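Open question from group meeting: does this chain pack into something compact, or does most of it stay loose? Before anyone orders reagents, we agreed to write out a predicted structure and look at it together. Recording both the input and the output here so the notebook holds the full record.
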Amino acid sequence: MSKNGSDKERTFTFFQKYKKEIMTDVLGFELDNIKLEKPFGKSKIDFFAVDPLRRVEVYIENQITPSDEVHLNKIVHLINGMNEGVVVWVALRFHHDHLLVVEEELKRNKQKYVDFYAVEVSSDVIEYVSWLDKQFKMHILNNLGIISQVEEPVKLVYKLEQIPKTFVGNAYIGERIYDFNRIEDLRDYIMEKLQEKIRYFPNIHFEKRPSKYGRSIYTGAGKEGTTYILNVKSGSGMAFVELHFDRSQEGLFNKFKLHLPSMQDQIHPDIQFKERKIGVYFKPLAELDDTIDMVAVIFDRMLKYFSPYTYKC
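Structure tokens returned:
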């Protein structure tokens, strides 16, 4: 994913998750266990999945512009960083020289069971993505179907296969067993549940790197300097959902102080203002799932209340 147009590429990646058939049809295999912006070394994979039949991992790199050296280097890095798997590069169009470099890289690594697919995305799709990207973020999910109106949204233009037809990989395809004593497992479980309960919020679908803040989950609230922080049990023993404002957004934070009565009515009676934070804090419930449900309800209400101010329509 490139810096220029990164929001549009995120919108396209979000579309791929909820309309995954556009990719499965052109690739010829299913995509399960989907993760968006999954960490891979020091970088991230736009779209990660597993082919359940062959049990191999699938790495998709998206760009809404013609292929370039930056993405080419990332594709080569992916190939060098794995022994088995599928690498898919999606771009508006491909420079022949870029595909030759990938081909030569794979031929130098014939011992690796790696397949490569180059997929072009229609310019009509890019136009729809650009339109979606200008809409209110909370409405994107319900409007993703507009992209499906394109007769051929993506097409396969190049394929190089090195995985034997009879090969079965080691990718895990069963239901994940979580160890809630491990912070990483706990965070992943909470993220999975939030993605189910608050499907309309794009940011919650993108993976979060483990942070120095332990169990807390951070996700952007829209404007630079605004961040949602969620926790099912903090070091102080409290669960909470809060909206944090950097100093650059202190003016916006102070304006919200005038709306406390409506927040108490629409979000939660016990909503509080702290130092550049607006949050709801409560003791975790007996069951983890019940606590997550409560966090999700509060988060949903905060999103619907604050997003018209923290996102530009």
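Observations to bring back to the group:
Confidence is low (pLDDT under 50) at residues 1-5.
DSSP finds ten helices and eleven strands in the chain.
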